[in-house]
Sequence to fold (832 residues):
Amino acid sequence: MNPNIQAANEEALKRINEGMPVLVDIKFAHEVLPGMRKNIIGHSGPPIDWEDMCGPMKGAIVGVIKYEGLAENDEEAVKLVEEGGVEFVSNHSMGAVGPMTGMISYSMPLYEVKNETFGNYAYSTFNEGLGKVMRFGANNEEVLERLRFMETSLAPALKKALTHTGPLNIRVLMSEALAMGDEMHQRNIAASLLFGKTVLPAISRVVEDVEERFRITSFITDNKQFFLNLCMAAGKAMMDPVKNIEGSTVVTAMSRNGTNFGIKVSGLGDEWFEAPVNMPKGLYFPGYSESDANPDMGDSTIVETIGLGGFTMGAAPAVVRFVGAASVEAALNYSRDMMEITVGQSPSLLMPTMNFEGAPTGIDIRKVVETGILPVINTGMAHKEPGIGQIGAGIVEAPLECFIKAVLRYSEVYNI
Amino acid sequence: MNPNIQAANEEALKRINEGMPVLVDIKFAHEVLPGMRKNIIGHSGPPIDWEDMCGPMKGAIVGVIKYEGLAENDEEAVKLVEEGGVEFVSNHSMGAVGPMTGMISYSMPLYEVKNETFGNYAYSTFNEGLGKVMRFGANNEEVLERLRFMETSLAPALKKALTHTGPLNIRVLMSEALAMGDEMHQRNIAASLLFGKTVLPAISRVVEDVEERFRITSFITDNKQFFLNLCMAAGKAMMDPVKNIEGSTVVTAMSRNGTNFGIKVSGLGDEWFEAPVNMPKGLYFPGYSESDANPDMGDSTIVETIGLGGFTMGAAPAVVRFVGAASVEAALNYSRDMMEITVGQSPSLLMPTMNFEGAPTGIDIRKVVETGILPVINTGMAHKEPGIGQIGAGIVEAPLECFIKAVLRYSEVYNI
Fold:
């Protein structure tokens, strides 16, 4: 093994494991995201043009345009896009992440997560809940009303609550949730309740109107995926300091726009290495089947990049029946396999079910290519048509081609 | 195997597994417990006289007497007891249960749990939190103030909240919590948060005063053992219909008063079979050791009687480090061992960590005596002196002697 690569990757692992993501504030996208304007829309995955976007991504964009008041209806929204009136930006390039379609626009409230160790910030939207929601491509009035509630009611309440609770250490929350059977991609029930546990007493104090207080409290307690977006922002905050370590072959981002899967590699700067995204295998909600499903999508794979999600499936035996894994043993084997393609393990994100072993951490592109073991991802599945929403959950692998492309570029850049 | 015994035990298992405990209301002890008066004190375990009670039980009783206004201070309280001014009653005989010292008195609010399948009711107090609390023998003003808060603030709020939420199915909650790594005796963090999830939205609505609302919300969210007492009431409601099945060798209650451990057996009516209680082995809070500890205590072993606690330790790998089990494998082995001494398994209380096997259910006194495998219990440890409180948590076995005595009586009664 090339000793420079080893040292570089150990530095990468050290930075991941030393990262201390803390929820410090709630901000609006227009306050914090670089270059954000009314007609800019952030999306998940590598950059992509309107023509190449999948159905749910287009559906969500139509919804965002209506939410921002740039169009009155779907037809006007599409027209605006086709006339070039809207600019699309990859969330990652703005220091942000969003699940599935990953929509981030001017008026949306965001979690502000600071990596206390390195001083950097990352952002994500709030989770809307399951079913007919914008991140799965739905865009009707119910979806928009919920976004307005999040903007005008939930966000100010959480912001005020944080002034009572103080900053929330997300790594501690992740660690507790792993001990409660969450892998934090498709199972966030414990993490969401732990988040509720920390903010609800403050919410009980700071929201004066009784019906508003009830809606906010219910919104947080009823959403088993509420924590996902916060976990993603924490993941982004943990991975950004790992960028640009000379010689490192560690993956700093994995993300999908519903058409392509992209990865970034520490020693290779900001370049995306892309390949067509795979179709998840999993379980469908009643009335839907694989023929309805859109391929894999979203920035949420940042959680696998830090060692959660599919990588800690062994810690989450109950997720097996939600994502359609073969058995609990299969879940344990996924985690064991991921140890084959990672630099090391987390000293704090432990899996009690696996004798308190640490989560497999720091994906090494060389190991992926050498072993043929692909990063495993627990994911939600969207309907392929715009406007419908979530239809299931499953398991998907990152495409090998991304890793091969990255290894080839690495050989060029480092001349080996 | 005697076929009558087998049929009787299958009926017992069926009744346990069909039991559907539902939290229906909050009531005061004086409203619902038979014969309750101001100078009656309910305690955990089989009946016991003042002279034979352990330190923490005496400490708690002094506290209750002050709480009920029967004495101004500790000396007056002890004098009242010694003059025969107080009557002690085993909680089980009133259809109720309480953890550790298990104090239940006239003014205390109780969970009212109904077994929807059989129509019977059971009761337990609310959990006070950890540390210096009455159930561990503490009795100072801080303890009494908390009891008054529970009586005058928490109880009316929960009662009102239940009118909004409707009855809460406790079996469903138990099942979800098992999938989140609780065994529901020493680890109740998930179950407590799931309970909070159901009641906190209603609490946010029904409590008008902002500081009262904050205290109630914090009290529920801050207490990782909040669910324990509710689980115990559910256990009592599930086991009472199993009593008095002709010929059944299934244990219907296990309980300890800090001096003796007692069991009841279905085919043997209401008789307690007692033996001196064991000392738990476990982990002590900083500053304490085994020489400070009181032997095992409380009605909480009702949760093992229904198949939770030590019996489902395999579902709760994270409890291992709290109770001082040797390893995760040891926890799995405890659950496997308990399958050797039970009639069957639960169809709904599943252990995802053990490939979704059902909890070992229905302790058979014959199997305990034949195999020598003793029911394993996860327990809290109280300081042996009155007035101090919890000093640790650990694992303890039920004493074999209780089971031998019960088997001998069974032979007499059934003439075999």
